[in-house]
Every structure is written in structure tokens, then in C-alpha cells.
Amino acid sequence: xxxxxxxxxxxxxxxxxxxxxxxxxxxxxxxxxxxxxxxxxxxxxxxxxxxxxxxxxxxxxxxxxxxxxxxxxxxxxxxxxxxxxxxxxxxxxxxxxxxxxxxxxxxxxxxxxxxxxxxxxxxxxxxxxxxxxxxxxxxxxxxxxxxxxxxxxxxxxxxxxxxxxxxxxxxxxxxxxxxxxxxxxxxxxxxxxxxxxxxxxxxxxxxxxxxxxxxxxxxxxxxxxxxxxxxxxxxxxxxxxxxxxxxxxxxxxxxxxxxxxxxxxxxxxxxxxxxxxxxxxxxx
Length: 284
What we know:
alpha/beta; Rossmann fold; 2 domains; four-stranded antiparallel beta sheet; 10 helices; 10 strands; globular; ATP binding; nucleotide-binding
């Protein structure tokens, strides 16, 4: 397997600046660190271990994808990073700071856009500013920038029912990025889209990530999506979820979609992931 090339190791300056601007954060610490993290749930019938002894570092400005069987704890891992769940053992850190509760310095994109039907695209994006008490003029300027960046020009005043599924997810992405979070968590954000729209969103997300320098942690069931988008792909085992292997994708950061999918590096990485999951052809 080839390793990430020198270009991929040069982290975006914007990511460094965003991280350095957060009070109490070390400029040298990983953006995300899980150290021996385990999560156990108690149900009426038995105790369930969702994650077991997961350790992972995500560098600033890096794009890391997580793949694995259904129920292996991928979404649970994101919730640990977001502070929505506390680890039963081990630790979760953001920028070197222990996660001790829900974090306001992240962005989160879910499978469903979860837009408010009675608010326009722009006002759905600005909901983030209202909830955080951000200055209105700066928030509007940032929203306009994101609308241009995601190709939503001309649809700012459209309501969710007037937008396609892909456009709704673009609005959700803008909303998550409005406050310029140093870390963006994405939980199967394109799973409900048709294949063509999903490809287009992959290309757009990759471009936006390169432009913003945000650290991204993406959960997906699609192996090609993971390899196309990420610097590294974390392959997880069936429950209780553990890290089976971390794959260095070894592709340049600027990736033409068709050429990337036809490349030797792409085929090697997807083949290795399928081999690890033991289900070649069972994923997209």
C-alpha cells in the first residue's frame, strides 16, 4: 500500500489558524484524540459494549473516514467526540482538551438535513447564529460566503420543500460550518441521496474541505466514498467496535473524481478495506 504523499502531509494554514484561535487549545495537539475509549450501555435485558478500547489521533486539517459493519459503534464514536456521550473507560480530547460535555466548537451534519420547514435556506443556516448568539452582520456575511461556496446562489430564499435532497444537505452543511468550527463531524450525510447526487456531493465536500481547512471526521457505509474523500480510512470491527486497521489512502489532495476512481491507489485502498471487512461487493 502506498503512503500519503508529501502534498497530503501539508496541513491547510486555515486549519492551524482556526485551532490556534480556540482558547485553551494546544497548537501541537491532535485535533481529535481517542485514547482507549470504550462505551457500554445497559439495556433491560443485558449490558452492551458498543466500543472497546478505541485509540485514534486525527491531525488538524485532516480528513478521516470511518467504515465498518452496521452496529459497530461508528456513530457512537462521533458522539464521544461531540461530548454527547461520556466514555465508560478511556478519554476523548479535542485539541488536547478533555471532552467533558456537549461541545459548542464543532460542526455536526447528520444523515437527514433536519431543516425547519417554515424557514428559508438562508434562515435555516442562520439558525446556528441565533442559537449561539453570534453577531448578526458577521453571521449574514458568513452565510452569504457559504451559500456561494456550496452553489446555493439563487436558492437562498427557497424553503426546504422547494429544494432537492442534495440541496437540503448543502444547507445543512452551511449551517454546520457557519461558526467556522475547527472540527466537522459527519454521520452518513449522503446515505439517503441517489447515486448521482451523492457523487456530486462528494466532489463538493472535498472542494469545500480543501478551501476551509476544517478537520473532518466522516462516518460512511460507502467504501468508495471513504477512499475518495479521506486522507485515511479507519476500518472498524463488528461490535464491540475496535479499530481493525487504519488505511493511508495515498492520493493527492486535489482529486478529479473519475480519474481518482480509475487510479491504482484507489483500487488498492478499496480492495484492502473490502478484504478487511470480509464482504467484498457488499458495500457501495
